[in-house]
Amino acid sequence: MFRPKLPDMPTLPTTAVTPQQIQPSAPSAGRPLAPFVGVGVGAVAAVAVVGIVLTALLAAVAISAVAVAIAAVVLRSLVSNAHKR
User: Fold this and answer.
1) How far apart (Å, rounded) are the C-alpha atoms in residues 62 and 56?
2) What CA–CA distances, in Å, run from 67 to 9, 26, 57, 59, 82?
3) First CA to last CA distance, the chain
4) Which stretches of the chain are assigned E, i.e. beta strand?
5) What are phi and psi of 4, to 5 degrees?
6) How far, in Å, are 1, 18, 41, 43, 65 from residue 47 at the CA level?
7) pTM beyond 0.70
8) Could you tell me if 33 and 27 are in contact, meaning their C-beta atoms sit under 8 angstroms apart?
9) What is the pLDDT of residues 18-46, one digit of tens each?
10) What is the rounded CA–CA span in Å between residue 47 and residue 49?
């Protein structure tokens, strides 16, 4: 009652294989293998935007690191001058 009914297995047609069917045909030299029409503009724009954003983030991190280093040097100088007095 609750068992699914499976369809009958179809029989596949049998064909004789000749040596010409075994060898793959080479693509013609004038035709591209994978045409990328319509993908180019969107993909280039996406890569450019991602590259610009990542570069800006890297620059922000570098500038922050330099600012922290300068602040550390200034604070160290102030603390060392206070101990000398």
Assistant:
1) 10
2) 73, 61, 15, 12, 23
3) 97
4) none
5) -75, 150
6) 57, 48, 10, 6, 27
7) no
8) yes
9) 665 555 565 556 655 555 555 677 888 89
10) 6
